[in-house]
Amino acid sequence: MKKCKHCKKPFVPTFSTLERTCREYQCLVLEAMSKVRERADMEAKKSKERLKVMKSNLETVQSLTKKAQAVFNTFIRLRDAGMPCISCGKLLAGKYDAGHYFSSGGHKAVTFDERNCHGQCVYCNRHLHGNLLNYQIGIVKRIGDGIFELQEKAHETRKFTKEELIEIIEIYKQKCKDISK
User: Which of 115, 117, 120, 142 is the most buried (most CB within 10 A)?
Assistant: First the structure.
């Protein structure tokens, strides 16, 4: 004998061994209502998935670039936490920026290059406009000969596609998770 899902009384299935309720009117109503809720939940889930796909299709390269830049900068801040400022050598603590040696506005090819971006105190990055002379000294110390390869790459023109930007976002989200562990 099976037990009714709702009233917990034992019953003998009449039509199928898969029956979950007895034949009491209240139990049948409760079962019908639970099935309606399940269907509504499934429809809501499908609708949410469709909306997510539609939103991702509507995203522009510009909005994806902003998202990718934010995730990339977060990674740089996590990577360089506790290190000195690339320009002035002051220990990075509290609020600090992810400063680019070659600006991300004018040098798209190295915008998401980890060698081009380092933790930088707010004063050097914002008030001294990057403090580039000292940044150059600091970047040569950190990456050495890689600076020449970075300079060559910086002069290339580059436009990112939606797919590339989505991939960059996913890569740096994962890197942030790995560092945070």
Answer: 120
